[in-house]
Request: fold
Amino acid sequence: MRFSFKLLLVALLTLPVSVLVFVLGLFDPKGKMVYSLGRFWCWAVLEIGGVHLTVRGLDHLNPSRPYIFMANHRSNIDIPVLVQSLPKFQLRWIAKRELLFVPFFGWALWSSKHILVDRSTRSHAMASLKKAKERIAGGLSVVFFPEGTRSRDGELLPFKKGGFLLAIRTHTPIVPITIHGSGNILPKGDWRIRTGEIEVIVSDPVPTVESYARDLRTLMTHVRQAILAQERAEAPVVNPEGLQAVPAHTRRLS
Reply:
């Protein structure tokens, strides 16, 4: 019953926020003003779900410059988690074009100037990368899930190269991010948001030096290993009630 109540609250929240973002976004060329509405929606979803965040490594980042953030992907809750974990950055998502056809949510995604990728042809995919370059040139940061989809078994999937090409062509540092626990909060294929703790680890930015342009695979391996190392590190301990213990030296956001 409580899961149904949470879902109802999220739906009741999503409808008016999406409509407002869609309408206001028509008058917001870069989506910077409506981004705050998206942040509010992300905060509210986590509050409704009883999800608390622990974030480590924010001191590695310079809020005055854009980055390309790359994170492992276990759950649909990863999106609001990252928005709340990186409060000093305006994020734009690389998302599947199919999301455009999700009523209200997809329309808001388009109106707030996120980047919807049509993977059917190379030309469409390259056009999406061009839009991403424009966002970065405007001081915005871009988020990729380099696996391309959510992992079902918790193992890190092979990375796709699109985000790495963008990083090299725009000389933008890549920030590897590891998310612990989101797959337990909202598993793939499930709609029930469970109460609990999610840990987000921000690793050191990886500069896209000229040598990587000649050896893209080395860059991909470097970023993958940074995420994998944190995945294999000791994850938060889940207590019998589904809440995770928070290490004393971490910063907690709620």
